[in-house]
Amino acid sequence: MLKKAKILIVDDDPLNRLVLEKTLANDHEIFLVESGEKALTFVKSTTVDLIILDIVMPGINGYEVLIQLKENSTTHAIPVIFISANTSDDDEAKGFELGAMDYIAKPFSPAIVRARVRNQLLIKQKNDLLEMLASIDGLTEIPNRRYLDESLSREWRRSRRAGTPLSVLLIDIDHFKRYNDCYGHRAGDDCLKRVAHALVAACERGGTDFVARYGGEEFAAVLPDINQQEALEFANKLRDAVNALAIPHKASLNAAHITISIGVATTEFGQVYAEHILLEEADLGLYQAKGSGRDKIITRVIAAS
Ligand SMILES: Nc1nc2c(ncn2[C@@H]2O[C@H](COP(=O)(O)OP(=O)(O)OP(=O)(O)O)[C@@H](O)[C@H]2O)c(=O)[nH]1
Questions:
Q1: I need a surface site. Which of 41, 45, 226, 288 has the fewest CB within 10 A?
Q2: What gap in Å lies between CA 181 and CA 271, rounded to an integer?
């Protein structure tokens, strides 16, 4: 049995909103808004399981709403069903190309709307589960590189489009080979887990900030809307969190405990022409942090390109 799903209905026609609400309110929790702008504002503060979206509306239309939902890491996975009186093949094809899950023609049959909504909610439940399993690193149980790469790609597109800052951090445990050699691989695994959990716990903004395991003893973070100074503060917090663990590392050449080095790359106005540039710059910063003694943070701002 499905738990009551939250469904957002976006339609400028009050009668359509009313009929859709009556059609679905028995089985689901319904929210109604009359414009694309209000829909985008609503999903910033409320998590919904499905959106039923009209296409032709005053202000931004349904296609544009969908584009913006797809570009945002917290809303990109919400299934969208278009509901429209525009029923040409081209309209429908455009909706699917933009990522809509279904397309219902107006006037609609309540029974068909209910059935299609139920189908999409079942698909979403299964997708969420698969997505979660595919995005988690097996050892540390934090997001993996796949999750990070997808998130970076999305956030880079958003930053470029909106001209907003975006920062990327690459974080590497110092002298970890020596740790493995000294304490054994199993202790190395435990150390990786402890560091991973400390990094995750240091992320405060919940949904938007996260730390992923990037590979081996390397971690990474994607920070939307974060400029160089804020990224540096964030990196300092991560470094402090790992230092606070005080994991003994007698084979380290720079401290008596486990430390991390961090490279930070920032685009202040979304002017980076490819997402891999951010990772390359962060990697360069990390290389410099290692070269300047480890347990260090080096930030790099990417100029217009
Ligand atoms: N225990 C354990 N070790 C790992 C894992 N993944 C990578 N490593 C080890 O991490 C070590 C990384 O070594 P290097 O790349 O030489 O870097 P480092 O010793 O940390 O030196 P610097 O980065 O220069 O401070 C290697 O010995 C890898 O075997 C893992 O999942 N578990």
A1: 45
A2: 43
Burial of 25: CB neighbours in 10 Å, binned 0-12, 13-18, 19+: exposed
Q: What's the CA gap between 161 and 159, in Å, rounded?
A: 5
Asked whether residue 180 falls in the same domain as residue 283, the answer is yes
Amino acid 270 reads G
Helix (H) / strand (E) containing 266: strand 260-267
CA–centroid distance, 183 to ligand 1, in Å, is 13
Is 140 within the bounds of a domain?
no
Cβ atoms within 10 Å, residue 237: 13
pLDDT tens, residue by residue, 33-44: 999 999 999 999
Tens digits of residue pLDDT in 93-122: 999 999 999 999 989 999 999 999 999 999
Closest residue by Cα to atom 18, ligand 1, is 175
**292: its two tokens:** 């300047």
Give the pLDDT score at 158. Answer: 87
On whether residue 213 sits in a domain, the answer given is yes
Q: What is the CATH number of the domain that holds 181?
A: 3.30.70.270
Residue nearest to atom 24 of ligand 1 (CA): 175
**Predicted TM-score (pTM) above 0.90:** no
Q: Which range marks the domain in which residue 105 is found?
A: 6-134
